[in-house]
Amino acid sequence: MKRFGLLIFISAALAAVACSEETDLRSKGEHFERLAVEAVITDQADRPQKVILSRTVPYFENAEKSGSIPVSGALVTVSDGDSEVRFEEKQSEHGVYEAPEGYHAEEGGSYHLRIELQEGEVYEADASMPEKGFRLDELDYAYAGNKTMGLDSLWTLAIWGKDMEHTDYYYITVGVNGNFYPHEMAEITDDIYFNGNEVKGFPIATLMQYSQMQKLYGDCAKYLETGDVITLEAMTLSKDFFDYLIAVTLNGAMAAIPLFSPQPANCPTNIRGGDGDAVGYFALCPIVSASVTVDDPLRPYYKKMF
Question: Which CATH class is domain 134-237+288-305?
Fold first, then answer.
């Protein structure tokens, strides 16, 4: 498997390396504030579908303005050619626009995103839902030892299922008791080494649990106990969205929450409009998932599965 592990704790300074005759770096940075769009619509009717809008902060902005700035008051709609759905801004989260309950994207559908800001600027994007690339039948875990690389404990996760005949691209993430790891702990991968094959006990991910991670990310990084539920999700990506996520990863922006704070350079986007100053992506992604309940945190894989 060609695997692209997402970068953890990347120094944002790498994104600022450039050659320029400008000496007023603050002014130059302020000139490049951009609209950042996070819009990933899935086929899961039981989960909220969101579009997140923010303004990037210039790299040399002062500490009081660190992080991105939510964009409120926008008119956000998604249409499928037959009907249009408005995403309403959440009162509790400025800049987060949510679809009506139960809304989701349909397999094979094509959708159009339209964003109209209060200032009158209009941004648009188009995306199509790719076919599900994987049939995920079963998930299991194995204890891989402790005090490895400074970790309190390490578990390996393996999957059983089938990859479809066509070449596919995935975003893979893991959660414990419904609490999922953040962007930088996910994996982006293609299926080059098992394309079209049955997958039996493939060690696709790990759980790295240690006290410092739990302080940062919460119970997704807790020490596993009997009764905990581990869930693995595989989101099928279009090739363009896959390329975008790789570019974001190489720019170090996946370690930023929200994304693009500060903004990366040279990342592709399918967001059109404004003055061509938007970053981000509009994507449609089907999801498959499987879960396993921990019965013994220290056991190896069940022998019956081999």
Answer: mainly beta
